[in-house]
Here is the input.
Amino acid sequence: MGLNGPVTVRRARFRCSETGAYEYPLDAVLDLPPQEATTSLSRRALRLSTHMSLETLQEELWYQHEVRLSDTVLDRLMQAAGGTAERDRAASAEALGALPVGVLREEQVLAEAPIARPKRVYISCDGAMYPTRYRQEEENGRRRLIYQEMKCGTVFWQEGTSQWFKRVLCCREDADRFGLSLWDLAVRCGMLQADEVIFISDGGTWCDTVAKNHFPEATRILDWYHLSEHIWEAARVLYPEAGAARRWVARCQALLAEWSGIGLLRYLRRRRRGCVAQGPSPAGEALDALIGYLEPRLEITDYVEYRQKGYAIGSGLMESTCKQLVSGRQWSEPGAVAMGALIAQRVNNTWDTFWASRPLHRAA
Here is the structure.
């Protein structure tokens, strides 16, 4: 199937007498891909698929080119191209992992010039849950939809006073291998040449592992909005009435803004001591949970200093990245990874370069 409809190519077929494999010499001459669609149609269709559902994509293909590709064919194309992109990322991480930390690893990445030279660069990561095509049997006989977490990362920086730029990645590997890919991306974005490097994330354990293992010299910031979510969780228990809960959250945020995390922690401890006489209670448990979240992360909550230096304290670009890379569509494991890899190619402005590497041919 091509951009102008079905194309029939009559060509000779040869069979190896030893292996039984078939060869089509004309395919190499015409550079025909091994899949059911031409490279030009596949490239356009898959780019559209990174923006919309397959159902909407079918409508657009018919409207723009008067051609149809079944969901099965589109899925096969997506996994071929996206799977190649993911294998490229994994191979790069494996090559870096085989090198010692330091100059040799940096030189490996810097063989190509960085795409930017920002004075201040931000690195962030987060997990995004997506629904799979798998179900789990429950005791009541119902089948519950299984969700998986996609690790997402972004490197962002500002040029001038307004315009922001970012590069992204996602995968389903462990924290250490993901962190190596994120480090690779950050170096390509000019991290080693930047005057300041900031790592901003929520308080998740695997995010902390990525920061400590791969960005130990970066300034760490606990995302303001993730901390605010934990404050809201406590507020809803302490004050069932919405207005009172809102006022308490505003008070806590004011303490954060004026005295950083230490100011909020002192206030929460005083408030907790006032609950001791009442014995065990939901309010006491809510305060304990909030204190337990804030206390071990205190050193990355110096919001007063962050604001004075003009740092971003919220990971809004990370949140938008998760929404871009992981949609609400149900995926198989390889399908989710392949689509995330394709979306990353588009967002990173490397789509044409990636397709110039002939991903469909390499997937065969």
